[in-house]
Design brief:
- The chain has one domain.
- The termini are far apart.
- By secondary structure, it is mainly alpha-helical.
- Helix 3 runs parallel beside helix 9 and helix 6 packs across helix 7.
- A two-stranded antiparallel ribbon has the order 1-2.
- The chain is 65% helix and 3% strand.
Length: 222
Amino acid sequence: MRIGELSRRSGVPVPTIKFYVREGLLPAGELTSPNQARYGEGHERRLRLIRALLDVGGLPLSAIAEVLTSIDDPGQPVHEVLGVAANRITSAEAAEPGSAEEPGSAEAREEVAALLARRGWRVSEDNPAARSLAGVLAALHRAGHGGFAELLDVYADAAEPVAHADLDYVRRRVAREDLVESVVVGTVLGEAMFGALRRLAHVEASARAYGETGLAEGVGRP
């Protein structure tokens, strides 16, 4: 297909496609004449992934280039490729944790380390998600709600089956780029879906706990 058709099929403007080619994010098309090039299904798939990383994952182009380099390395295990994508997304989304001097920061890091050890999770304490969790716990300590950490294992119990379901969905993909796209969409939109379901469960739990009947629009509005 020509670049115009590639643009129509992918929804990416022609100037943007040319920019991605210049930046090395998208392979150049096969020249058919000095001013014409032919593009294939692989180009369309790569554009779809770039847009997912950019629009859904919120990654800067430098991070996208790192993910794409990982995908294009045939010696890189799929687990490592998915890790690069997930870690980059987590880093882009996570709020900066408090400094080591702020109250609760040391305790938060210890709580995360204890959680990982207790559950036998093969995750480094330097993983972006672990640092993000430590940042959340530190903020709870500073707000006077450090006791909320008592619920860590309850949350972990809920997260484990969801994580396995996520990976089962990802395993249905064959192409490495499709695998990474699934991680991007699943990480960002999956977390939004999980959060919405948690809020719905809050409404139901509140209604049961306080004896409300009928349909509730919110925790505070029976």
